[in-house]
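Fold this complex.
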Amino acid sequence: MLAEYSGVLITLVVALIIAGALLTIHVFVGPKRRFQEKLEPFECGERQIVSPRQRFAVKFYLVAILFVVFDVEALFFYPWGALFGELGWHGYWAMVVFTIPLVVGLLYEWMKGALEW
Amino acid sequence: MPWDVVAKSLFILVVAVAALAPVVTWVERKQSAVMQDRIGANRADLFGIRLLGLLHPAADVLKLIFKEDVVPIGANRVMHLVAPLIAAVAAIISFAVIPYGATYQFGDSTVNLVAADIDWGLLYIFAVGSLAAYGTILAGWASNSNWSLLGGIRASAQMISYEVTMGLSVVGVFMVFGTLKLTDMAFAQDATFRLLGFLEVFGVVDHLPRWLAWIQLPMWGVFLQPLGFIMFLTAIMAENKRPPFDIPEGESEIVAGYHTEYSGMRFGLFFMAEFIEVIVIAGLMTAIFLGGWSIPYLPQERIIGALEPLFGSGMANLLCMVAHVSTFLLKVVFMIWFQMVLRWTQPRFRYDQMMDLCWKILLPLSIANAFVTGTIILLVRSYGS
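Structure:
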């Protein structure tokens, strides 16, 4: 059972070696001439006047919440889709009932303007 | 130690990461040059040999390695280093589940050409895809730059939005093939179906011209789920943040977005991740929608059946394997080319257009697609032969 996942482990190890080696070599071989102006975050030649560690638009949080709702509901679609042949009409109507609240929720968000940017 | 698994994993990684990825960066530059009536990259040379600019990828890697390693003041040093690592690793490990060949018999042993033949292959791809979002968001957050932060939060909203539609748009494919396993999907596509076979439900097949009623198509996802193909390609390209969906980078508005503060190989890993992701997309689209390794109208049994009397069982399987892997690579190259054409012909979306496309068009359409597919499958099963 777990043997099938050994390919994943091997690819993971190889990927870590490739990426890690490139980064490590890079840290050691490059020149090191550091001074204040070079190390400042890019701000079109100005000193940073606003710290980036601050609040940003609430819409992004809203999208994250919507994502959690819809992604969890989408997860129910996967096993249903894969087993659709065995479930037949019974499974079909069950999913219709399951989807109605989902679509109503989407319409509600839409009407409320949560999807406007 | 399962050496066959090591060999299979290394084969796909060498082909995709070491051979294809540098060529893809070259194709991107050369094709844009051709499309814009320029000559394009051709300066890098080795002892005076230029090879149409094919040495540029190697020159780029060398240059990026020997650049200074700069971490901006106030940046989170650990996260700044880990972010490109996550992005690159997440892109590379997606290859583990992409099947690049069928199952072959060599004497007593069977060889199936996929690194990890796991039951929930497509879910694995989705899971790894969401890991890649961490790399981008962390890069934007850790850099301590306003441009990076803007790019990072744009990327976070974009990537999680398109993850939902990406998942829902392939539900129709799960229903048609009845599996989430990529190897099984590829096997199912090694067959043909009658294009107008579903019309039997309505009893009109007999009234059609004979040739029209008997047209056979390969059982590819793109023919069974044309809408799913378009929606999935759109969603997964948006997930990869390449033009026309490169809003998190948006170099004309927010400098370079989430990798503004990245230089040298740290930037190189983001760059690499993006191009490897292009190959992952091409491989995935091939496996789900373009029949994977299958040769149209030539199922595996027929190839081996035809070759076996001539060369014997082992050789026939070997030849079939070579043919399948070449077919797979050919389709992958086509999908890469197709993405490049899209990349150089479409202008960048505005952020609201991109979000509207995701939530107001693709999401309802993909749910509708699942139910229309379900209705057709059940009708054909109930009334068809």
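The mean pLDDT of chain B is 84.
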